[in-house]
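subagent[fold] <- orchestrator: predict structure for attached chain, return tokens only, no commentary.
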Amino acid sequence: MSDPFDSMDDSSPSALGIVDLISFSRFGPYEVLEKIAGGGMAEIYKVRRQGDENALFALKRIRPDKDGDQAFVRMLMDEARIALRLIHPNIARVIALEEHGGDHGLLLEFVDGVDLLQVQRVLRERNSLIPVPVAVHLLEQVLLGLHFAHTVRDEKGDSLHVVHRDVSPGNVMVDVDGEVKIVDWGIARAKNRYVKTSAGNIKGKFRYMPPEQITNQAIGPYTDIYAAAVTFWELMAAKRIYDGSEVAHFMMKVANGEVPSLHEARPDVPKELEAIYRKATAKRPSDRYESALHFAEALREVPGRMRPVEAKSVLSTFPRDARIFETRRTYESAVARARDASASDLESALLRALEDPDRVERVDVDWESLSSAEKLRKQGPRAPSPRPES
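subagent[fold] -> orchestrator:
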């Protein structure tokens, strides 16, 4: 049984998310271009400021059926209050909290890239694993962003005690330049939130939670440190941790401190990296790294370190390849629809399918035939052949 909570609001402001039908066309001065993703509370859209072709943003808008619920509005206000202070290269910026026509939304930095779930899919499509130094660089960037959030202060100089609480592959993105961004601070804990988490109400995704979060004990920066290490395990393995396990079974393992070793994911990891991972996923928070920065500094001692510019060059290939694989899936779907058409109208059916390939499952494709189909699409429909005179 899969973890039912893994499918809950794993959305991120990605250019490559699931594009859905747009339910509205404008939000104040912003033109809505496409729906990127949606969850239980909000929907995320790609928008453009009217009159400026290059002013692209992501818009996190409360779902229409929830916008009248003041609890959801307060949650969005909380996210804005926290995230507006999180100005760091490894955190996707929240630009403004806006209200237009009674609708509430967060204007966000548009991250043109993919999240780590999509990176894992690209790795599986390539039939390869991410190079260890590249994965280490990515984790270091995540930790630097988290450390900034953990230590951010308010206008009086007091710590806000921010904890993300939902560090997971769906909330870490890689953009087309190879930059790493943490997204979605919607359930982050911080001082002076309008909405408090009720006792017994656990927020986050079970698969990435440390023992103290699963057992509803006090959380802190050490909670995000653990989740970042588990996210790193999945990136290295290109699969989900505890895959195939019942939720109750792996929750019991986590509560008992039984975390899969990094060597199980990748036998090629240096022993120094295994030791760092073990410390970051220790059962007791006091046995983990004192801060996300200490965790990042430990990674710098791992042998085979790659220069940041080289690591970013490798990471930048993931958004590109994700687009390539998505295009292939589109063509495969088009061919599948054409195959379902009557043989007498195969050519026109194929042309229609290439224009509207939605809702078709993936099939094996003869890429030579597909190339011919694309040529047909570019040429446009042919005139019907004249019938021979009798």
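orchestrator: received. Logging for downstream: The first strand starts at residue 26 and ends at 27. The chain is about 40% helix and 15% strand.
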